[in-house]
Amino acid sequence: MAKSFRNFIGGEWVAPAGGAFLENRNPADTGDLIGRFPDSDARDVTRAVRSAKRGFAAWSNTPAPQRGDVLRRVGDLMVERKEAIADAMSREMGKVLAETRGDVQEGIDTAYYAAGEGRRLFGRTVPSELGAKWAMSWRRPIGVVGLITPFNFPMAIPTWKMFPALLCGNSVIIKPSEDVPHTVHLLVEILLEAGLPPDAVQLVHGRGETVGKALVEHPEVPVISFTGSTATGAIIGETCGRMHKRLSLEMGGKNAMIVMDDADLDLALEGVLWGAFGTTGQRCTATSRLILHRKVHDRFLRRLVEAAEGLRLGDGRAERTDVGPLIHEASRANVERYVEIGREEGAELLTGGKAPGGRLAAGWFYRPTVFAGVRAGNRLEQEEIFGPVLSVIRVGSFDEAVRVNNGVRYGLSSSVYTRDVNLAFRALQALDNGITYINAPTIGAEAHLPFGGVKATGNGHREGGWGVYEFYSETKVGYVDYSGRLQRAQIDTYDV
């Protein structure tokens, strides 16, 4: 019989208030039941908020370097358990072990980076315009932070959000994707073992439309961080705007890789295979569009199709697997729908376009798919698919490639392959994205740099790097007047 897992609320592992559970199954083999996880509701969120408020009162008064010490121990425990976590993650999410090991490593890097920031929560000391007066600012925590995370990076994204929020002195309530609940369960166990006060973290499993909605709408959760679809992010944005909450949104992408006529085609081929079909295309930074200069278009395309057809599908835990399954049936159905849209729009299906049978029939697999002859403005070229479908667009110049790249509603990531250093720097300026890579695919963000995009991809905040610590803290300004007399700023110092 499969294990029934619980929420972590009020310092205890507790069953959901309504007594309902959701099944968590291996997407590579739907007969493999990993466990049953709480299908929580607003009552569980209410209890979690009460506990998180107690946690905030204590944790916010812990010196920041000591908070960093706890996160350093978290990183050490993650190092010890890296292989076990990666295996569990591949089982519940599907991507290959090389990727889930990287997912854990990103969490480790984020833990160690956050630990160091415990001694770097800088404020500013500046001259006052008045004599015998001190002026300064510093960072202070905000309160209870609600975190809503997606399925595709079950460890990395929760740690991107959770570790900076905790380091800044907030308490957190995390609602992981109902498709990958086990990985965050393992993370919370590590946090508690490392010495995080139990009330500082709450884990509430469940659906976005119930738990996520209750978390966003709760009046005593002043900060929300969400990663997911642009449509859902827009709804969350409306609620948080009305309730005056601080909100970070990291949403969709329709990322393009540009290959110029002077590019290293061997390097570009490796890059597009990794960018388009790594994580089975289920990344917000996935290479969904390939923009090829007309001079290399035909020969590069021939090599791409051959290489894509050589990718091995299978269980992500198997040694020779290159591409794992999609996360669930609805995701595969969505990919199938877009393949039909591509055909209807007149694009040429060069490879893929179907689910494999045989030994893979028990999972949500789909063959790596390449469409040629895609035109700028087509739905296949404009809309996020979140699956292993690559659209190829032919262009005649760099300027045309820039127009195609920028001609979508999203603005997360882009890449350019060229040997021309001047063109590379032009690309860094001209491509309307939050991230641009030169001679690398559209994926590969590092934990100590900001991550995020423009336009419909986000709302201006960034995950990772130094900026996220400003998001999870408030600026407080203090003045100390030691003159012994009333001094009035501006009024006394300037003649009218």
Task: Quote the CATH topology of the largest domain.
Answer: Aldehyde Dehydrogenase, Chain A, domain 1
CATH class of the largest domain: Alpha Beta
Pairing-aware structural class of the strands and helices? alpha/beta
Let me know the average pLDDT. Answer: 97
CATH homologous superfamily (4th level) name of the largest domain: Aldehyde Dehydrogenase, Chain A, domain 1
Shape: globular
Count of discrete alpha- or pi-helical segments spanning 4 or more residues: 15
Order of strands across the main sheet: 14-15-16-13-12-18-19
Amount of helix: 25-40%
Reported CATH architecture of the largest domain: 3-Layer(aba) Sandwich
N→C terminal distance: 82 Å
**Which stretches are low in confidence, meaning pLDDT under 50 for 5 or more residues running?**
none
Total strands = 21
Main sheet properties: 7 strands, mixed
**Tally of individual domains:** 2
